[in-house]
Request: fold
Amino acid sequence: MLKPRAYQIPFYQLCWFFFPAWIITKLICYKLWLADRIFPLVPVRFFAADLPNAFHLSLFVISMACMIWMMVKPAKAIAALLLVVEIVSCLLDQNRWQPWEYQFIFMLAAYVFSKEEKSVLAYWRMIMAALLFFSGFCKFNSAFIHDVWNHLILHRWLHIQTGPEWLSRLGYLLPLIEMAAAIGLLFRKTVKYAVLIMVAMHLLILLMFGPFGLNINSVIWPWNVLMISLLLLLFFRTEPVFEQTLLMRPFFWIVLMCWWILPWTRQAGYWDKYLSAVLYSGGVEQLFICSNNSEAKKATARFYEKQFRVIPCDSSIAAYYW
Reply:
């Protein structure tokens, strides 16, 4: 009896999931993509900080238009324009290099630099597996147990005030499961089990951070929905097959370097945390700003942080909340 062939989803159908998620995510944090705001821009070069808000707004509008176009009729020229616009926009403010933006840019680049759809899907699988693996790897530390597992999950979400030592140590299972499932995505015999584990994980994340849970960080809600969709479309209904012809493509080595090699150097400080899939891993450095300027204090009064008494001023601003 012949085995049925694995279903291969066309790229244009993936666009119906990919670009709406990107659009919604950028709209939720639209102020991040504009210059008309109190929080300063951090450009690659200082002269770029003097560009008018109209320039940033134009990039944002062009980006939205290109994404809508790609949903209706994918085209390499439009995708290339969108890629350039997104990279330029991110170079104008380091705060825009969010983990999801980095992922979206690479997935878009995979389409721009690939001649065949199967190559695009292969790159997307490489990126997805790497993202999920290093997301788990970065969580394997005591800061994750203290900041995320004990404080955020057990205390704030599940309302477990205190617990035995074994309950705290149980948190180490989460990164191990995430890493194992990410590796499982790469092999035929384990891919479906890995997908089910990852889908369950993202559903729990949505439940915890969503409106019926902690109702925080709404910018990651559409990203988690997209991750569930991509896991089902790219892995569950297909079999992972490595295309040896990819070894001859320069973009393959770029993806391999940026997603599977450079994140290992993060611990030594050679690669950025957000570009290494550090997602709710705990131990994040906090920046607090103090000022004696009366106008500045008045404009930022709603961002004052009262909990951290060790900050040597009465009007410290937590940059994270700002």
